[in-house]
Task: inverse folding
């Protein structure tokens, strides 16, 4: 049902933070669904559409870069953007790639995003020199 309602409906429900009743009032096609469970599920998909798209983009990016090599001498001790647990785990396990880092228990997806961004920044700095 959410897919049939489209992007504009998703933007409206999410952007205006509409609750289920308000979304039904604003979207007659949603209100017309007789099954409350289906209507509620469609509302959840519409409400969190933007968040879910961003999350999927992050997952896709990390998958594309899972073979990104981590420099052997990479010192993350001073990188406060990474969690303390992550820095400890990375120092202990010394993964060779971003994908290997992601397989270590205690390394979160937020840590992987930060690590990826750090590597991109270092790469950018190196290419400017």
Result:
């Amino acid at each position: 049902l959410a897919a049939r309602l489209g992007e504009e409906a998703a933007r409206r429900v999410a952007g205006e933070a509409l609750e289920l009743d308000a979304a039904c009032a604003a979207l007659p096609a949603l209100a017309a669904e007789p099954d409350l469970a289906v209507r509620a599920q469609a509302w959840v998909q519409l409400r969190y559409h933007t968040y879910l798209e961003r999350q999927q983009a992050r997952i896709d990016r990390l998958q594309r870069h899972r073979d990104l090599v981590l420099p052997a001498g990479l010192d993350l001790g001073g990188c406060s953007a990474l969690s303390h647990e992550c820095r400890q785990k990375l120092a202990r396990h010394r993964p060779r790639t971003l994908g290997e880092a992601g397989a270590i228990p205690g390394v979160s997806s937020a840590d992987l995003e930060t690590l990826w961004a750090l590597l991109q920044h270092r790469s950018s700095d190196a290419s400017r020199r």
User: Anything to note?
Assistant: The radius of gyration is 21 Å. The helical segments are 2-15, 20-26, 28-31, 36-47, 49-64, 84-93, 98-102, 109-128. DSSP finds eight helices and no strands in the chain.
